[in-house]
Automatic annotation (TrEMBL):
<dbReference type="InterPro" id="IPR036510">
    <property type="entry name" value="Ribosomal_bS20_sf"/>
</dbReference>
<comment type="function">
    <text>Binds directly to 16S ribosomal RNA.</text>
</comment>
<protein>
    <recommendedName>
        <fullName>Small ribosomal subunit protein bS20</fullName>
    </recommendedName>
</protein>
<comment type="similarity">
    <text>Belongs to the bacterial ribosomal protein bS20 family.</text>
</comment>
<keyword id="KW-0694">RNA-binding</keyword>
<keyword id="KW-0687">Ribonucleoprotein</keyword>
<dbReference type="InterPro" id="IPR002583">
    <property type="entry name" value="Ribosomal_bS20"/>
</dbReference>
<keyword id="KW-0689">Ribosomal protein</keyword>
<keyword id="KW-0699">rRNA-binding</keyword>
<dbReference type="Pfam" id="PF01649">
    <property type="entry name" value="Ribosomal_S20p"/>
</dbReference>
<dbReference type="GO" id="GO:0005840">
    <property type="term" value="C:ribosome"/>
</dbReference>
Amino acid sequence: MPNIKSAKKRVKVIAAKTELNKAQRSQLRSTLKKAELSLAEGGENCAEVVRHAIKTVDQAAAKGIIHKNVASRKKSALVCKLNKIG
């Protein structure tokens, strides 16, 4: 446990940021799962769901939740699956 005042504050700030990052990463994973499910079922609004998932991935990469190369890979996989359907 830190003794210095600034170190104590850093512990609090890091804990708060960690919780926020966990929530945003969870939301990203949920969005990606919804897109995958929509593509597997072949619903009529697949393109809309994939577009929303790509936007979410871009936002996560911009905020530093995921690396930009990971974001690019996920977007590419979604578009590839969408092209195979339609």
